[in-house]
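Title: Comparing notes on inverse folding

I've been comparing how different people in this forum approach sequence design from structure. To keep things fair, I'm posting one structure and asking everyone to reply with a full sequence. Here's the target:
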């Protein structure tokens, strides 16, 4: 199964770089696309380009059309490149997602065809369940 992560970022290169460096080691993720949503800080894109590699693609959207626009921009880019993925993970750069949580979601999606979307349990920084 092929999995791509789409991360929309705006003016926060440091948090995005930290997050990407963590998840790019995950074996269940084949592609990471960071979409800069037309940051006003001109240094952001150049900083992000430092982490681009064969697994990580950095894009700059043609406009800041909002969060959904940025996600769709990344997905459409992959489709135009002819890259096919079974699943897309839509993620923010200011979260922590463990590889096992991703795998549990993927396992559920593969096991039950009536499930179309899955998300791990969200915990606060103190590890308490958010309600």
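Reply #1:
Here's my take.
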């Amino acid at each position: 199964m092929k999995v791509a992560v789409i991360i929309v970022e705006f003016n926060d290169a440091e948090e995005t770089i930290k997050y990407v460096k963590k998840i790019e080691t995950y074996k269940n993720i084949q592609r990471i696309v960071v979409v800069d949503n037309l940051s006003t800080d001109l240094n952001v894109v150049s900083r992000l380009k430092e982490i681009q590699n064969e697994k990580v693609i950095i894009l700059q959207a043609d406009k800041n059309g909002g969060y959904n626009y940025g996600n769709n921009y990344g997905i459409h880019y992959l489709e135009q490149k002819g890259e096919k993925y079974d699943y897309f993970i839509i993620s923010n750069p200011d979260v922590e997602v463990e590889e096992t949580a991703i795998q549990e979601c993927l396992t559920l999606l593969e096991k039950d065809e009536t499930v179309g979307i899955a998300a791990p349990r969200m915990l606060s920084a103190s590890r308490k369940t958010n309600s």
